[in-house]
Write a structure and sequence with these properties.
Elements (H helix, E strand, L loop, with lengths): L10 E5 L18 E6 L3 H6 L8 E7 L11 E2 L10 E2 L12 E13 L5 E6 L8 E7 L2 H4 L22 H4 L1
Antiparallel strand pairs: 1-2, 1-8, 2-7, 3-6, 3-8, 4-5, 6-7
């Protein structure tokens, strides 16, 4: 039995990332990556964000809206040095999923509401493409969302870091 649920975006993300290849691989990897989440113009959204500014971080649930053309695969190759050749899609964070839903924990910098009932959340540490539709926002709760003794599976250990240098011509 196949059931379909349709959800309307509550807002859209505005970022400087216009190409998939330029987006950070995970949220919070680049703290300087910023976004604005502009909620759709609905008066109730200004009330819906009441008290959210008291949280330092939020979960953003979004749609991988530019991955429909390829469909999904049951296995994928993680984009990480030292990762296994292939893992099951549910053991990865690939955007190519049976239901193209993503989730990212990001820093909530501030919230602005203007007289036209537009509500904008300013975020940092983001990993979104410009124009990404958002379907929900939830507060990050450190006591429930941080599990220090959890196993990281194949992604355990430090992320390898490499020094990058640029030529003088490139820096110009």
């Amino acid at each position: 039995m196949k059931e379909t649920n349709l959800y309307q975006p509550i807002g859209f993300l505005r970022t400087s990332f216009t190409e998939k290849s330029g987006v950070p691989r995970q949220s919070m990897m680049i703290g300087e990556a910023h976004a604005q989440l502009e909620l759709v113009a609905e008066a109730r959204f200004s009330q819906a964000v009441e008290d959210l500014e008291r949280f330092s971080h939020v979960w953003i649930l979004f749609i991988f809206d530019r991955n429909f053309e390829k469909g999904w695969r049951s296995t994928t190759r993680p984009p990480r040095v030292g990762a296994p050749r292939k893992v099951g899609v549910f053991a990865s964070r690939t955007p190519h999923r049976p239901n193209p839903i993503g989730i990212s924990a990001v820093k909530l910098e501030r919230i602005e509401t203007d007289p036209k009932k537009r509500t904008i959340l300013y975020l940092s540490g983001v990993d979104f493409l410009d124009g990404t539709p958002v379907i929900d926002i939830k507060p990050y709760l450190p006591y429930a969302d941080s599990l220090p003794h959890a196993s990281g599976g194949w992604a355990s250990g430090d992320i390898p870091k490499f020094q990058v240098t640029f030529s003088k011509e490139c820096l110009k």
